[in-house]
Protein backbone atom coordinates (compact mmCIF):
# COMPACT_ATOMS: atom_id res chain seq x y z
CA UNK A 1 0.00 0.00 0.00
CA UNK A 2 1.06 3.57 -0.66
CA UNK A 3 0.39 6.76 1.27
CA UNK A 4 0.65 10.45 0.44
CA UNK A 5 0.84 13.78 2.14
CA UNK A 6 -0.71 17.05 0.91
CA UNK A 7 1.17 20.19 1.76
CA UNK A 8 1.58 23.74 0.44
CA UNK A 9 3.98 23.79 -2.50
CA UNK A 10 7.49 25.09 -2.00
CA UNK A 11 10.00 26.48 -4.47
CA UNK A 12 11.84 23.13 -4.35
CA UNK A 13 8.69 21.58 -5.93
CA UNK A 14 8.72 23.93 -8.91
CA UNK A 15 10.35 21.53 -11.39
CA UNK A 16 7.88 18.79 -10.47
CA UNK A 17 4.88 21.12 -10.68
CA UNK A 18 5.99 22.51 -14.06
CA UNK A 19 6.49 18.90 -15.26
CA UNK A 20 2.92 18.08 -14.23
CA UNK A 21 1.58 21.25 -15.87
CA UNK A 22 3.25 20.17 -19.10
CA UNK A 23 1.81 16.66 -18.82
CA UNK A 24 -1.64 17.97 -17.97
CA UNK A 25 -1.55 20.57 -20.73
CA UNK A 26 -0.99 17.86 -23.31
CA UNK A 27 -4.00 16.11 -21.86
CA UNK A 28 -5.93 19.39 -21.92
CA UNK A 29 -5.03 20.12 -25.54
CA UNK A 30 -3.20 23.34 -24.69
CA UNK A 31 0.06 23.92 -26.55
CA UNK A 32 0.95 27.18 -24.73
CA UNK A 33 1.14 25.52 -21.32
CA UNK A 34 3.45 22.81 -22.62
CA UNK A 35 6.01 25.57 -23.16
CA UNK A 36 6.09 26.57 -19.48
CA UNK A 37 9.49 26.61 -17.81
CA UNK A 38 10.68 27.04 -14.23
CA UNK A 39 12.21 30.48 -14.90
CA UNK A 40 8.98 31.52 -16.61
CA UNK A 41 6.85 30.51 -13.63
CA UNK A 42 9.15 32.33 -11.20
CA UNK A 43 9.17 35.45 -13.40
CA UNK A 44 5.36 35.54 -13.46
CA UNK A 45 4.98 35.21 -9.69
CA UNK A 46 4.79 31.45 -9.28
CA UNK A 47 7.25 31.61 -6.40
CA UNK A 48 5.04 33.74 -4.15
CA UNK A 49 5.07 32.74 -0.50
CA UNK A 50 1.26 32.69 -0.39
CA UNK A 51 -0.27 29.25 -0.66
CA UNK A 52 -1.24 29.38 -4.30
CA UNK A 53 -0.38 25.80 -5.33
CA UNK A 54 -0.95 22.75 -3.17
CA UNK A 55 0.99 19.83 -4.66
CA UNK A 56 0.33 16.31 -3.42
CA UNK A 57 3.43 14.38 -2.43
CA UNK A 58 3.07 10.64 -2.83
CA UNK A 59 5.43 8.41 -0.85
CA UNK A 60 5.69 4.65 -0.16
CA UNK A 61 4.15 3.59 3.13
CA UNK A 62 7.06 3.34 5.55
CA UNK A 63 8.33 4.85 8.79
CA UNK A 64 6.88 8.35 9.46
CA UNK A 65 10.37 9.88 9.30
CA UNK A 66 10.60 8.99 5.60
CA UNK A 67 7.66 11.26 4.72
CA UNK A 68 10.04 14.21 4.50
CA UNK A 69 12.87 12.34 2.79
CA UNK A 70 14.20 13.68 -0.53
CA UNK A 71 12.88 10.67 -2.47
CA UNK A 72 9.26 11.87 -2.64
CA UNK A 73 7.45 12.36 -5.93
CA UNK A 74 4.93 15.12 -6.61
CA UNK A 75 2.01 13.45 -8.39
CA UNK A 76 -0.53 16.27 -8.52
CA UNK A 77 -1.29 19.89 -7.86
CA UNK A 78 -4.21 22.21 -7.24
CA UNK A 79 -3.72 25.79 -8.37
CA UNK A 80 -5.98 28.44 -6.90
CA UNK A 81 -5.98 32.11 -6.14
CA UNK A 82 -7.98 34.53 -4.08
CA UNK A 83 -10.58 36.55 -5.92
CA UNK A 84 -13.64 38.65 -5.18
CA UNK A 85 -17.27 38.01 -6.07
CA UNK A 86 -19.62 41.00 -6.05
CA UNK A 87 -22.41 38.84 -4.58
CA UNK A 88 -20.54 36.92 -1.90
CA UNK A 89 -17.27 38.79 -1.28
CA UNK A 90 -13.91 37.04 -1.05
CA UNK A 91 -13.66 33.66 -2.73
CA UNK A 92 -10.97 31.20 -3.70
CA UNK A 93 -10.98 30.44 -7.43
CA UNK A 94 -9.77 26.96 -8.37
CA UNK A 95 -7.85 27.37 -11.62
CA UNK A 96 -6.49 23.87 -12.08
CA UNK A 97 -6.52 20.45 -10.42
CA UNK A 98 -4.41 17.62 -11.78
CA UNK A 99 -3.50 14.19 -10.45
CA UNK A 100 -1.47 11.78 -12.58
CA UNK A 101 -3.80 9.09 -13.99
CA UNK A 102 -2.06 6.21 -12.21
CA UNK A 103 -2.63 7.92 -8.83
CA UNK A 104 -6.30 8.79 -9.31
CA UNK A 105 -8.98 7.15 -7.20
CA UNK A 106 -6.81 7.26 -4.07
CA UNK A 107 -8.32 10.41 -2.52
CA UNK A 108 -5.49 12.74 -3.61
CA UNK A 109 -7.74 15.09 -5.62
CA UNK A 110 -10.25 15.24 -2.78
CA UNK A 111 -7.43 15.96 -0.31
CA UNK A 112 -6.17 18.80 -2.50
CA UNK A 113 -9.64 20.33 -2.76
CA UNK A 114 -10.20 19.93 0.99
CA UNK A 115 -7.43 22.45 1.69
CA UNK A 116 -9.68 25.43 0.98
CA UNK A 117 -13.01 26.31 2.59
CA UNK A 118 -15.13 27.58 -0.34
CA UNK A 119 -14.12 27.99 -3.93
CA UNK A 120 -15.32 28.29 -7.51
CA UNK A 121 -13.61 26.70 -10.45
CA UNK A 122 -13.91 26.27 -14.19
CA UNK A 123 -13.12 23.30 -16.36
CA UNK A 124 -13.41 22.45 -20.02
CA UNK A 125 -16.88 21.20 -20.97
CA UNK A 126 -15.38 17.99 -22.41
CA UNK A 127 -13.63 17.05 -19.13
CA UNK A 128 -16.17 14.46 -17.95
CA UNK A 129 -13.86 12.77 -15.37
CA UNK A 130 -13.36 16.10 -13.56
CA UNK A 131 -17.09 16.87 -13.73
CA UNK A 132 -17.86 13.47 -12.18
CA UNK A 133 -15.37 14.10 -9.35
CA UNK A 134 -16.72 17.59 -8.59
CA UNK A 135 -20.32 16.36 -8.69
CA UNK A 136 -19.41 13.51 -6.32
CA UNK A 137 -17.99 16.13 -3.93
CA UNK A 138 -21.24 18.11 -3.99
CA UNK A 139 -20.34 20.80 -6.54
CA UNK A 140 -23.15 22.42 -8.49
CA UNK A 141 -23.01 23.26 -12.20
CA UNK A 142 -24.06 26.92 -11.98
CA UNK A 143 -23.56 28.06 -15.57
CA UNK A 144 -22.29 27.02 -18.97
CA UNK A 145 -20.84 29.62 -21.28
CA UNK A 146 -17.83 30.07 -23.53
CA UNK A 147 -17.22 26.30 -23.54
CA UNK A 148 -16.51 26.29 -19.78
CA UNK A 149 -18.61 24.95 -16.95
CA UNK A 150 -18.61 26.82 -13.63
CA UNK A 151 -19.22 24.88 -10.41
CA UNK A 152 -19.16 25.73 -6.73
CA UNK A 153 -19.31 23.79 -3.49
CA UNK A 154 -21.22 25.42 -0.65
CA UNK A 155 -23.39 24.83 2.36
CA UNK A 156 -23.73 21.26 3.60
CA UNK A 157 -21.47 19.79 0.90
CA UNK A 158 -18.67 22.24 1.82
CA UNK A 159 -19.02 21.49 5.53
CA UNK A 160 -18.83 17.76 4.79
CA UNK A 161 -15.72 18.28 2.67
CA UNK A 162 -14.11 20.38 5.40
CA UNK A 163 -14.94 17.71 8.00
CA UNK A 164 -12.99 15.14 5.98
CA UNK A 165 -9.83 17.13 6.66
CA UNK A 166 -10.38 17.26 10.41
CA UNK A 167 -11.09 13.54 10.80
Description of the structure:
This is N-acetyltransferase domain-containing protein. There is one protein chain. The protein is 31% helix and 31% strand. With 167 residues, the chain is α+β, with helices and mostly antiparallel strands. The protein has a single domain, classed as Aminopeptidase. Strands 1-2-3-4-5-7-6 form a seven-stranded mixed sheet. The longest helix is centred in the N-terminal third of the chain and has 14 residues, at 14-27. The protein starts with a strand and ends with a helix. The model is unreliable at 46-70 (pLDDT under 50).
How many domains would you count in the coordinates? 1
Number of strands: 7
Helix content: 25-40%
CATH topology: Aminopeptidase
Strand coverage percent: 25-35%
**Which consecutive residue ranges, at least 5 long each, have pLDDT under 50?**
46-70
Number of helices, where a helix is a run of at least 4 consecutive DSSP H or I residues: 6
Name of the CATH architecture: 3-Layer(aba) Sandwich
- What structural class do helix, strand and pairing data support? alpha+beta
Please state the CA-atom Rg, rounded to the nearest Å: 16 Å
Q: What is the ordering of alpha helices and beta strands?
A: EHHHEEEHEHEEH
For the record, the CATH class is Alpha Beta
Global morphology: globular
Distance between the termini: 21 Å
Arrangement of strands in the largest sheet: 1-2-3-4-5-7-6
- Major β-sheet profile: 7 strands, mixed
- If you average the pLDDT, what whole number results? 69
